[in-house]
Amino acid sequence: MTNACGVGTRAVQRALQSGTSGLRRNDFAPAASLATWIGRVDAVDAARMPDAFAAYDCRNNLLAQLALEQDGFVAAVRAATLRHCAERIGVFLGTTTSGILSTELAYRARVHAEAGVGEALSPEHYRCRHSLFATTEFVRAYLGLRGPAATVSTACSSSAKVFAVAARSIAAGDCDAAVVGGVDSLAMSTLFGFHSLELLSREPCRPCAVDRDGISIGEAAGFALLDPRAEALVCLKGAGESSDAFHMSSPHPDGAGAAAAMRAALADAGLSGGDIDYVSLHGTASRPNDAAEDRAVAGVFGAATPVSSIKGWIGHTLGAAGIMGALSSELALRLEWLPATLNCAKVDPAFACAVVLQSRPMPLRRVLCNAFGFGGTNCSLVLESAA
Amino acid sequence: MMPLAIVGIGVCATGMANWAQARPVLLSEALPRLDPLPRLAPEFLPPVERRRANATTRLAVSAATQAVEGVPSADVEQLATVFSSSDGDGEVLASMLAALAQPQVVLSPTLFHNSVFNAPSGYWSIGSRSRAASITVCAGAASFAAGLMEAQAQVRATGKAVLYVACDAPFPAALASFARGALPFACALRLVPAVEAPAGHQGCIDLSVRDRGTTAQEAPATDLQDRFAGNAAADALPLLLCVAARRNAHIALPWLDGTRLWLDYTP
Question: What phi, psi does B64 have (nearest 5°)?
Fold first, then answer.
């Protein structure tokens, strides 16, 4: 797990446990005119792509590589490859913009240089850096895997849905194990795009707060190995997916689609609401999103189950939001510890849910995490401690 | 593994505005003239969404609508969907890139929400009032097979119907180097477990990752396939030809690493 709070899970854990947000004032040069806060991963700027993968050199793939090299992940995949062989391990990753920044910058340079159309970007540039499959292709090649692969791109639910895809792929016999994850890096499209919708906060985002006024965009990469034959500390118990059928960029006000996803995840896990000890919210800090999610969560779980959002720590990492939710939930389960909803000083009095304001130890067996996105796409995951 | 039956089918492409028009084109000995598609305005979408939707959404929805013809709307509301596209909407991408390159960036909110890869899925769920699961995947040149594999895995996991929609359209001139296809192509397949298929279905498919053949067995590309070369969604053409001809087939689909996956079709 790599995000604005740190490179590698241990660094992220340190930041979470010391109450340190990774957000900062926007200093991302291509979008420097925007008065907002961002969750930037500095280490990407210093990262270098190995020569063998030069064609894949772009911010998104560098961020992916940085995360792959943490937490013993490459070694874990190598061990899985020995168990299953490379042809039987799938790769399913979520992203919303992949390496689009590389094309945005090329376009901008061209216009600034007033050089007319200039030299067209090559098909290889598009395939290896910009296209939505680029990072999945890169990660698959970097890990030496040859099983089925796909990019899931359903806006901000992308890297939650990859868990469902991988579980189905394994169940259908298309692969025996799978690498899942999500990678999204800072880009002009998303920063200016959310600005155009007036969804960016001018301050660090404040999920669930009475004074919340928008999101902070972050970048992140995270991966997990799903392997039915491996011993694990945390297991995927169920996944649920739904659509809002309401609006392209606003959630259903009552959270009806979100509630359907949570109920579907519980049903898939064979559990009921009372079996869940903690809900990791999508919690972006946009006014309508948090309100709709509160209604949905309260409808499914009642008001007693503790809930929190990690967006105040790392920002909204878009296509990586699902995997960040899943990996921070995995951390919570391992540590038996609830992360606070950072930056939330006073919970919106209209909210019914028990929003966690102070990080605290708590025995945890099962966690549900949410990821919702534009197009009214919803996904919920149930994770369970094997201990 | 359990095969899947095709119980609904739709096509929307140059020269083939719908399945009825596509059949004679698929079955003709010599390639007929392929008329460009008119501007699509699928009535399936509410007027506001119809006006806002991007071109690939209107293309995908036009194919998808055919595949649910005659299905009660209550069932369409329960129908899970899988969308695939190699490249998404090029017009939207070109407009975004042009706007972002200006000294003063001004983006339209509608353009931004239309830029998400799952835009066709979002509009479809609004038009169908469906809260069912929907996913959108890609895998470069293997996108058609990757989407079909996910749709097949869903039918096998749930035992329920899934609507699979594959759609790719040419990129505008400014981005011509990115996507090779020159013609738009979308197709939709409504799939159910074969054991539950009603009489009169359009045949059964079974996609396998197990290597059961070599490229040597592969049928040569037809003139029609050549016209749609580079359009990943048009990898559906050999299957559609066999459906139209009611002919058994062992079809090679472009897959990852330049390899092939094998799709069995029985009428």
Answer: -60, -40
Residues of A in contact with B136 (CB under 8 A): 152-154
Distance CA A326, CA A370 (A): 9
Give pLDDT tens digits for A182-240: 999 999 999 999 999 999 999 999 999 999 999 999 999 999 999 998 888 899 999 99
Domain count, chain A: 1
CATH number for A33: 3.40.47.10
Say if residue B187's pLDDT is above 80: yes
Instruction: Check if A156 is active-site.
Output: yes
Q: What is the CATH number of domain B4-266?
A: 3.40.47.10
Nearest-angstrom CA–CA distance, A382 and A263:
11
Nearest to B101 among A111, A137, A373 (CB): A111
Q: What element of type H or E holds A122?
A: none
How far, CA to CA in Å, does A143 sit from each of A3, A139, A363? 21, 6, 35
- Going by pLDDT thresholds of 50, 70 and 90, the confidence category of residue A116 is very low
Q: What is the DSSP string of A30-93?
A: GGTTS--EEE--THHHH----GGGGGG-SHHHHHHHHHHTSTTHHHHHHHHHHHH-GGGEEEEE
The C-alpha atoms of residue A151 and residue A135 are separated, in whole angstroms, by: 8
DSSP state at residue B217? G
For chain B, positions 177-236, list CB contacts with chain A under 8 A. Answer: 177-180, 209
Residues of chain B contacting A127 with CB distance shorter than 8 Å: 140
Q: How far is A358 from chain B (nearest CA, A)?
A: 35
Q: B40 near B11, Cβ under 8 Å?
A: no
Minimal CA–CA distance to A291: which of A352, A371, A378? A352
Residues found in chain A:
387
In this prediction, residue B155 has a pLDDT band, given cuts at 50, 70 and 90, of: very high
Both structure tokens of B132: 């069912």
Stretch 215-244 of chain A: residues touching chain B, C-beta under 8 Å: 241-244
For residue B212, what are its two tokens? Answer: 């059961």
Identify the DSSP state of B235. G
Backbone angles phi, psi at B48, to 5 degrees: -65, -45
Is A5 a known active-site residue?
Answer: no
The sign one gets for the Cα dihedral A247, A249, A255, A261 is positive
Predicted local confidence at residue A234, as pLDDT: 94
| Chain-centre distance for alpha carbon B55 | 14
Q: Using one digit for the tens of pLDDT, what is the confidence trace for B91-101?
A: 999 999 999 99
Domain hosting residue A86, numbered range:
2-385
> Rounded CA gap, A266 and A261, in Å?
9
For an interface test with A, the pick among B45, B48, B100, B259 (most A C-beta atoms closer than 10 Å) comes out as B100
Domain boundaries, chain B: 4-266
Which helix (H) or strand (E) element contains residue A361? Answer: strand A360-361
- Which residues of chain B does A241 touch, with a Cβ-Cβ cutoff of 8 Å? 133-135
- Look at residue A286 and tell me whether its pLDDT is greater than 90: yes
Please, which residues have CB within 8 angstroms of residue B70's CB and are 6 or more apart in sequence? Answer: none
